[in-house]
Amino acid sequence: MEESKLKTVRRGTDPQDGRWFSKEAVLKLQKAQEELEWMLNRGYNNKSVVNIIGNHYQFSLRQRNALTRSTSSQEKCSIREKKQIQLSDCRNKCLYIDGFNLIITLEAALSKGVLVLCNDNTLRDLAGLRGTYSVIDKTDFALELIGKKLDEANISKAEFFLDMNVSNSGRLKSFILKHAEKWTMDTEVELMQRVDSFLYEQERVVTSDSIILDNCESWVNLSMDIVEEYIRDVNIVDLSGRKTAFTSDPDNCEI
Fold first, then answer.
1. Residue bearing the bigger pLDDT, 166 or 4
2. Are 9 and 137 contacting, i.e. CB atoms less than 8 angstroms apart?
3. Whole-angstrom Cα distance, residue 13 to residue 126?
4. Domain boundaries defined on the chain
């Protein structure tokens, strides 16, 4: 497919984001996150507590989604941290890639859509595609960055897994394989019914999906690595609960 024919889309953006994630709004979200994490650490259900806290602060649905996606209990954060390995640990090895998860996160970053820096040190988008997907102009750039980073890291093989129930998964498969012709590593793309369940049992998994992180053997924070190294003017909302390189300006962070 020629790049000129790809639809120009700003993935993961909303016209109200300037209001919902202003400096003042982020400060309120950070305060709410402290309360949410305190309750999660004591066994409360995430969804019900977010509803209570969201109603108290009068958060929008998008703000509540950011709060939910960014906040895990200390126990879960600790488990995920122990499982995390560096890309350098995967030299001459195979990576198992949660395809939609990685690509959509990078598309959102390239679109200057909101990315949430979470308290488990992952980046998560708010695109909320829910079973629908289309290849866009940012897909080209996202795949170029993935190939560049993995080739530089001397990864021997990359296996992408796509949920076959998501629209245009077959089209994305073809698009990945077309890009992979320029990569030095071996690349495979598989369409599956239950990608999550398959990745639960793997090591060297690339994803930010919280359930996969809780179940897999080990994981690589590849989206974070790529954003830090290659993408500028990223719209990061810092809900990590700690001081980071992303905290200088929540309206328009530059890495």
1. 166
2. yes
3. 8
4. 17-71, 85-255
- Evaluate whether 157 touches 129 at the Cβ level (below 8 Å): no
Rounded CA gap, 70 and 27, in Å? 14
DSSP bridge partners of 94: 157
Q: What is the pLDDT of residues 185-228, one digit of tens each?
A: 999 999 999 999 999 999 999 999 999 999 999 999 999 999 99
How many CA atoms, within 13 angstroms, populate the side-chain half-sphere of residue 19?
6
Tens digits of residue pLDDT in 30-74: 999 999 999 999 999 988 999 999 999 999 999 999 999 999 999
Q: Is 185 exposed, middle or buried (0-12, 13-18, 19+ CB in 10 A)?
A: middle
| CA-derived radius of gyration, the chain | 18
Residues 36, 67: Cα–Cα separation, whole Å = 8
Residue type at 220 in one-letter notation:
V
Report how far Cα 18 is from the mean position of its chain's Cα atoms: 21
Residue 54 amino acid letter = G
Structure tokens belonging to residue 20: 């919902």
